[in-house]
Write a structure and sequence with these properties.
Elements (H helix, E strand, L loop, with lengths): L11 H8 L4 E4 L6 E2 H4 L8 E3 L9 H6 L2 E4 L11 H13 L11
Parallel strand pairs: 1-3, 1-4, 2-4
Length: about 110
């Protein structure tokens, strides 16, 4: 997928994203996070997604660096998704409606 890149803690690109005007969205199951569909990343010009490791999730430092905490709405008896499933849902949310590769209209 064009525009997607995996960043490590030591990747200098990670800091460039932080300094840019790109919204940094941290995926977390935390109840204080905004539901992903309400954030509407598909309407943003660009967005950077942070996903944590399965189990531990994102570190406190990563969460604090984010512009917005977002969560994937789930059934009440489900508390989290594995990181692969969460990534698939989040990437779909970012790209849905972008027929020309840009932000969705509407």
């Amino acid at each position: 997928m064009p525009g997607f890149r995996t960043l490590s803690k030591r990747d200098p690109y990670r800091e460039r994203v932080r300094r840019s005007a790109v919204p940094l969205l941290a995926l977390t199951p935390d109840a204080r996070a905004v539901p992903l569909d309400e954030v509407a990343p598909h309407r943003m010009e660009r967005a950077a997604l942070m996903l944590g490791a399965e189990g531990d999730g994102l570190s406190r430092r990563a969460l604090d660096a984010a512009d917005t905490w977002v969560r994937i709405p789930m059934a009440h008896d489900v508390d989290s998704l594995n990181v692969g499933a969460a990534a698939a849902v989040a990437f779909y949310a970012v790209t849905a409606g972008r027929g020309d590769g840009g932000p969705a209209e509407g």
